[in-house]
Design a protein that fits this description.
mainly alpha; Recoverin, domain 1; two-stranded antiparallel sheet; 4 helices; 58% helix; calcium ion binding; EF_Hand_1_Ca_BS
Length: 100
């Protein structure tokens, strides 16, 4: 409640309520978009994005990349070092300011 009480009156007015709800909706919408994107990109359904899957996605999005560029992208996002991007890594990558 403290974060929602922007004017520090110890009460949440309608404008403050709308502000909080807008922020929550934005986060929810973003997480739904990220989830749907991951499922779409993970063409074999194994829960990971491989070099081939990521290269295919980028090509379909009109951003063809070499294997080396895709491998570098995976290396930057691959927190567990398995050479693939899992859902948590994809979410972190998509939420990062580097990819805006």
């Amino acid at each position: 409640m403290e974060r929602a009480d922007l004017d520090k009156t110890e009460k949440i007015n309608f404008l403050e309520f709308l502000t909080v709800m807008e922020k929550r909706t934005e986060k929810t919408d973003a997480s739904v978009v990220i989830s749907e994107a991951f499922r779409t990109f993970d063409t074999n359904g194994d829960g990971h994005l491989s070099v081939e899957e990521l290269r295919h996605v980028m090509t379909c999005l009109g951003q063809p990349m070499t294997d080396e560029e895709v491998e570098n992208m995976i290396r930057l996002a691959d927190m567990d070092g398995d050479g693939k991007i899992n859902y948590a890594e994809f979410t972190a990558m998509m939420s990062s300011d580097e990819y805006d």
